[in-house]
Amino acid sequence: MLIHMIAAFAAFGVLPLANAAVAYVFELDAQRQNVSISGKAGVLRACRFPRQVELANASFDGSALIVSATEYVPVRALLLCDRNPVDLRRIPSSAGSLVDVNIEHGLYLTVDVVSASPLSFLVTVARIGSSRNIMNIPGAYHSTLPLTKLQEYGFSYDESRARGKVSPDGNYVAPNGEIDCSAHAYPGVWDIKTVACASRKA
Fold it and tell me: How confident is the model at residue 14 (pLDDT cuts 50, 70, 90)?
């Protein structure tokens, strides 16, 4: 199990789509409404958004460019953009703040602040087009649980150190971005297929 988890995240840079985040550099202009896509040969293309965006973060598998807490654009659409603004795809605003998306496997990952003191977070792993959390384990956000219970399951999250990620094969999630498969890791690495904390089974 441990070998499969590590290999799933190590596949980044090996799979065709996974190469996208490594092969391209995305840079917003001062108005935050245009993005340039650069590769080894220099600037490949410049694309326009229909309005200002907040950021330009490539997804872990390289299939998408995340431009706000609820919006993203497929990288393939950017590589084919013309003079018209590119269409932004949106996740439900109730799902949290978008940190990763895996288009090929139809998954996205969001984080939610659950406590301000100490600052702690929970995540949602959902299918594109839905806001229902497919994970039901400690560390996952569920609106049916009381806030006090949710706060018990919160964990620290520092995006400057690591962003939450979905493995390129769509089988695993690292909620806080750390590929920590040790038995005592929290939140650890989650197995999407078995809806369980894979790191604790390893």
Answer: very low
**Vertex 105 angle, CA 81 and 155, to 5°:** 105
Radius of gyration of the chain (CA): 17
Pairwise CA distance, residues 168 & 11, whole Å: 7
Task: Tell me the two tokens of residue 199.
Answer: 């790191």
Both tokens assigned to 98: 């978008």
- Tokens 């005592």 locate to 184
**Phi then psi dihedrals of residue 56, to 5 deg:** -145, 80
- Alpha carbons within 13 angstroms on the beta-carbon side of residue 159 total 10
**pLDDT number for residue 40:** 86
User: Amino acid identity, residue 192?
Assistant: I
**116-135 core/surface letters (b: 16 or more CB in 10 A; e: else):** eeeebbbbbbbeeeebebeb
* Contacts of 124 by beta carbon, 8 Å cutoff, 6+ apart: 95, 96, 109, 110, 112, 131, 133, 135, 140, 141
* pTM to 2 decimal places: 0.87
